[in-house]
Amino acid sequence: MNAVGAVGRTRREVDDAVMREALVVVDSREAAAQEAGDVLIPNAAIDSELGELLTGSAPSRVAHHTVFKSLGIAVEDLAAARLVLAGTT
Fold this sequence. Notes:
- It is built from five helices and four strands.
- By secondary structure, it is α/β, with parallel strands linked by helices.
């Protein structure tokens, strides 16, 4: 599941039970600790950052439920824009 719509300490998209039981991946632990109600309200444990999984610095795990909580980091926007532009030339 991807949770990308709610940003703010008191806003969320996913209920407590799902967040507590899921393997939670975030784009930034620091950002999630400050502004991710989906993580903060249920006190969900963060397993890893997306970048750690992509570089192999965190082990890939299998879980019944995985939630990717994205707060939108500028470098993600730049990477997406680069892919879009590369596809239009």
